[in-house]
Amino acid sequence: MDHAAATTRTAGLRGPERLEAFSDGVFAIAITLLVLEIRVPSSEDLVSNQRLVSALGSLWPSYLGYVVSFVTIGIMWANHHNLFRLVASVSHGVVVANLLLLLGVGFVPFPTALLAGTLATPSQGVGVIFYSGTFVGIAFAFNLLWYQVRHGPEVLCSDADSRAIDAITRSYRLGPPGYLIALLGALISPALGVVLLIILAGLYLLPSSTGA
Amino acid sequence: MDHAAATTRTAGLRGPERLEAFSDGVFAIAITLLVLEIRVPSSEDLVSNQRLVSALGSLWPSYLGYVVSFVTIGIMWANHHNLFRLVASVSHGVVVANLLLLLGVGFVPFPTALLAGTLATPSQGVGVIFYSGTFVGIAFAFNLLWYQVRHGPEVLCSDADSRAIDAITRSYRLGPPGYLIALLGALISPALGVVLLIILAGLYLLPSSTGA
Amino acid sequence: MDHAAATTRTAGLRGPERLEAFSDGVFAIAITLLVLEIRVPSSEDLVSNQRLVSALGSLWPSYLGYVVSFVTIGIMWANHHNLFRLVASVSHGVVVANLLLLLGVGFVPFPTALLAGTLATPSQGVGVIFYSGTFVGIAFAFNLLWYQVRHGPEVLCSDADSRAIDAITRSYRLGPPGYLIALLGALISPALGVVLLIILAGLYLLPSSTGA
Amino acid sequence: MDHAAATTRTAGLRGPERLEAFSDGVFAIAITLLVLEIRVPSSEDLVSNQRLVSALGSLWPSYLGYVVSFVTIGIMWANHHNLFRLVASVSHGVVVANLLLLLGVGFVPFPTALLAGTLATPSQGVGVIFYSGTFVGIAFAFNLLWYQVRHGPEVLCSDADSRAIDAITRSYRLGPPGYLIALLGALISPALGVVLLIILAGLYLLPSSTGA
Q: Which domain holds residue A80?
């Protein structure tokens, strides 16, 4: 490898490519681990087709948790992807804020399993609040990361479109209050909290929120 | 990083590279999690070599589920790869349809564990139907993604070979009825359903279906 | 994206890059799932430091299985990496043979857990034979993949070094008989089989076997 | 693919790109598997919101283990990333030392689960020592890898900044004694060991230690 190539390589890696690859890995693994919370019915439910159909039906909280968390992590990945489109080089603040965000994303399988396990039990209120609270925290981490990208030295692409920047700022600002409303809704009624969580996941599927 | 390089980077990332990397991750993790459904025999089966051989033999539904799901996910990955060869840029519709497809792919370990757990029990009919039904859904998601690629604005490569496009269209159209036939076969006899699922996995291994 | 760029992209993706990325994912996940077979001692062993030290000591088969399988998968990954250095484009035969290889690699956590669970029990003979047998199969899959690479149409790089080709051929030929000897050794004595497996893993760590 | 392109490809792959991608995968999977040690409370704790809140509170050792290990693996990944910035080509020694490092990183979910399971039990001393000891080993592996990078033939980029090299050398030298102090602290008092582990994770979050 000649000197010029080595220089290019060293310089190129100050870009966010490997940070994106690592983050992509965490998002992809967290989203795929979600399925492990859906448990095959125990052997006493396998004695007849009728029993198994009934047991599979009673797993609806697990399916619901799987779908809501899968869609939410998937859209968070798309947002992360869009954010890093605008990043030219990575500062220490970006590394730390991104790690905090991944700490939240990697945690999602636990509140998802908790939500699935508590729905249809007397403790479902706590399950919905814990789940919503996790996403309040993740939404704050997204805003912190975005703050680090916007205000870090030479982090932002010099030609980043100011409308794209404003769109992300607006979109991210809605995250914490959105999940806080779901949390407060769960204080009134767990079912209301769940409905609000489903609406939030659906809203994120609308075109404007991914920017793609 | 100079202005030209930053521009290239921003523009380049509108391509599907990171969406492919994320999808590759989900396919690779789902396929590798399959092994977790094969459980080591319990300690009472470890008291002699004879007992263990017998216990390992009785795990045949787990081996079967592992092989059929592994091959099917592997071929789905190859199809996904071939489809994205023809994608020049990613629309919102592609992101959402791809997420729906990954939702199905990431779910496969559950119906696989269910199939393995119910084969050789009285509830095997439901196990085979649930398994086939999951792949009917995934086959529809593949067609939806392909529709989004073909009809989204500027998604398809401008120089995409029309024979390659027609080959994918034909191949994908066979997915939903194929798995529906396996599902209907399972209604007649679970064993017939399983045979049809094995034949489908085998068919996908033929050269024409991967296009490679 | 202009026509030339789209053409380049389509052509570039006929190369093995995405197949390598997918395979890397499966290797990396299989190697990291190995740790899940090491179980935290149950609560009755947590009542005192002495009890826990003793319980952690009795997990030696799990540590052994973890280290041997980790090193073996790691070296298999390096071999896979070296093999694909010589691949210019991917044929259908390469895709299928590679999938068969990954089927074996993804299976490794199960025989590893079985080996760890049976060592120091009366059924350890079967555990060692099953483990060795898995690697006999993987070694055959490596040879099949290599055959597809060497004999497929335009698969091999036109400038591939014939000494590198011969080195891989020689190295791969040793795999099936090597693990078969470990399997036969286990028939005589499980301990002998384990020693042979450790020697094989150690041999692969020598410089010539990775070619790097 | 013409001859020139094939040459470039073969030559390019002697660089560390695929080794980095594989390592990134192991880091990302190990960090995301950490969440599996946090278990949903059993059904008897789901009978009321009060019971569940109490049960979730008693999981504090799991949350602590998750956060400390997540941050530590995340920073180790950043260090690995910075180290490989300086690598131009990969020697056999680098492959083996990197595999040893990954062996340690992939093992982290086990001592983390052990730490979480033993904190607040009489065996917590052993839990903290085992945890610290794992990181002593990983810190030694980092130094071995760095030694292989510095002293291997043509491994280091020819234009690597000598200050960057010295900074890594200094930073890595602090790893083994740092975790050894935490281990020795745990011999005096498990709580002291835990505090030292938290301080070490926090120190790594300071700007100078990632070099980014």
A: 17-210
Helix (H) or strand (E) holding D89: none
- A179 touching B, CB under 8 A? no
Q: In total, how many domains does chain A have? A: 1
d(CA D212, CA D209): 8
**Mean local confidence (pLDDT), D112-131:** 94
Q: Tell me which H or E stretch contains A14.
A: none
Interatomic CA distance for residues B78 and D196, integer angstroms: 49
Distance (Å) from the C-alpha of residue A42 to the closest C-alpha of chain D? 15
- The three-state (H, E, C) secondary structure of C53-103, written as one string: HHHHHCCHHHHHHHHHHHHHHHHHHHHHHHHHHCECCCCHHHHHHHHHHHH
pLDDT band at B123 (very low <50, low <70, confident <90, very high): very high
> How far is C141 from C137, CA to CA, in rounded Å?
6
**What number is the ipTM of this complex?**
0.87
* Dihedral of alpha carbons D32, D36, D38, D41, sign: positive
Scanning chain D, the segments in alpha helix (DSSP H) are 3-12, 17-33, 49-57, 60-85, 92-107, 109-118, 124-151, 162-173, 175-188, 190-204, 207-210
Asked if residue D200 lies in contact with residue D178, where contact means CB atoms within 8 angstroms, the answer is: yes
Tell which residue, C205, C3, C23, C202, has the closest CA to residue C99. Answer: C23
The vertex-A2 CA angle with D100 and C79, nearest 5°, equals: 35
Residue among B32, B108, B110, B128 with most chain A CBs within 10 A, to mutate: B110
Angle at B20 between CA D83 and CA B94, to 5 degrees: 145
pLDDT tens-digit map of D150-195: 887 777 877 777 887 888 888 888 888 889 999 999 999 999 999 9
Cβ-in-10-Å burial (0-12, 13-18, 19+) of C84 comes to buried
Enumerate residues 6+ apart whose C-beta is below 8 A from D140.
D175, D176
In the three-class reduction of DSSP (H, G, I as helix; E, B as strand; rest coil), residue A87 is classed as: strand
Q: Judge whether A133 lies within some domain.
A: yes
Classify the C-alpha dihedral A89-A93-A99-A101 as positive or negative.
negative
Q: How far apart are CA A126 and CA A138, in angstroms?
A: 18
Instruction: Say yes or no to pLDDT of D92 above 90.
Output: no
d(CA A88, CA A16): 7
Q: Does B52 contact C126 at a Cβ distance shorter than 8 Å? A: yes
Q: How confident is the model at residue D208 (pLDDT cuts 50, 70, 90)?
A: low
| CA–CA dist D22, D28 (Å, integer) | 10
The minimal CB distance from A52 to the residues B7, B26, B123 is found for: B123
Task: Specify if B4 maps to a domain.
Answer: no
Nearest to B142 by CA among B102, B200, B196, B93: B102
From the list A23, A124, A34, the residue with the least C-alpha distance to A72 is A34
Residue A42 lies in a domain: yes
Strand-pairing partners, residue A130, are: none
d(CA B97, CA A212): 13
B145: chain A residues, CB-CB within 8 Å: none
Q: Which of residues 77-106 of D touch C (CB under 8 A)?
A: 90-92, 94-96, 99, 102-103, 106
Residue C139 lies in a domain: yes
The answer, yes or no, to whether residue C178 has pLDDT greater than 60, is yes
**For residue D99, pLDDT beyond 70:** yes
Q: Which residues of D touch A91 (CB under 8 A)?
A: 212
Query: From CA D132, how far away is CA D190, in angstroms rounded?
Result: 11
Task: Please say if the pLDDT value at position B25 is more than 50.
Answer: yes
User: Each residue of A103-123: pLDDT tens digit?
Assistant: 999 999 999 999 999 998 999
User: Which residues of chain A have a pLDDT value below 70?
Assistant: 1-14, 207-212
